[in-house]
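Q: How do we represent a protein-ligand complex in a form that can be generated token by token?
A: Start from the inputs.
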Amino acid sequence: MGCYWNEKRVVVPGGAGFIGSHVVDLLVEAGAQVSVIDDLSSGCWSRIEGHGGRIVRHEADLVTADLAECFEGADAVLNLAGLAPGLTLESSRHEVLYQGNLRIADAVLNGVLAAGVGRYLEVSSSCVYPDDAAVPTGEVSFDGKGPEEVNRGYGNAKREVERRAIEAAAGGSRFALAIARPFNAFGARDMATGAGAHVIPSLLERILDASPEIVVWGSGRQTRSFIHAADLAMGMLLAAEYCADSNPVNIGSNEEISMKDLVDVLQELAGTDKPVRFDRTKPEGAARKACDASRLERMTGFRQRISLRQGLEEMVRARLVPS
Ligand SMILES: NC(=O)c1ccc[n+]([C@@H]2O[C@H](COP(=O)([O-])OP(=O)(O)OC[C@H]3O[C@@H](n4cnc5c(N)ncnc54)[C@H](O)[C@@H]3O)[C@@H](O)[C@H]2O)c1
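Then emit the structure tokens for the protein with nicotinamide-adenine-dinucleotide bound:
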């Protein structure tokens, strides 16, 4: 990381979250003065407690807080707050995720405008892309198609959030806008379990708990690509520095793995050999997902440093030997 962030005053809404906490780590390491605003709805201070007095923490709901005051004097706001649960079967989730993500993003964007902040990172998602987008997926146009079907509420919210931020940046206030479209993130800090957990922690839970078999949604042939959250955070900081031209930039890995192979690797690392059942009555999402991050690489020199296997080893270790 270069010296761009040194001494910068940076506010990170959602900085106690899974990805946000890695962004905070990198900013502190780079010498930034960091404030975090989080309501701890899915975040926890323990993820960033190692920074002690080097960061300022505000526990507040972004939707109701006075963000103009919180953002006053900031050089940049990097918005890592949002509602990003894994797949569930609740039909209401589309509306909840659509409205919830819009409310949070609108509040943060309005705060940025009111405080006159010069640089803003909006975190979107790869779920904005249609199911039949070419794989690996670059920053392709949507051609009138909807976002990823199983995540349509979330994907539509992210499309709308992007649109509103681009419009605001093009208006009179003219702040530098970076838009990140991350693909699936993973890492040991993503250890939520139960309904709404992301795919890797949720598979790991079933591998390590007492259940006699592992049930995987769909055929098991669907592929995904995963980027370690520490690498993703690095990509986001580079994007905020070098790609603040209002054009979305993908951040992710082009290494595809099928769900079946993912379960096999996790079982190997966990030392288990449970039978696996593929439940084709459950949704499996897009047949393939992988990221073409060549725009980010060209503009910033970004390269991933943590392989899928290394990151999975870290996650299994964290579950078997909790700190
Ligand atoms: N995890 C992924 O694989 C992934 C992939 C693509 C995009 N994203 C996006 O990245 C961002 C961060 O995701 P994450 O996985 O770290 O999620 P997360 O749930 O771990 O982090 C979100 C943080 O925002 C906080 N928050 C939520 N609502 C808030 C509110 N009203 N006021 C204050 N704080 C609030 C939560 O407490 C949490 O700390 C989200 O915008 C998400 O859509 C995540």
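Residues 14, 16-20, 38-43, 61-63, 80-82, 84, 104, 123, 125, 182, 184-185 surround nicotinamide-adenine-dinucleotide (CB under 6 Å). Residues 41 and 263 are 29 Å apart (CA to CA).
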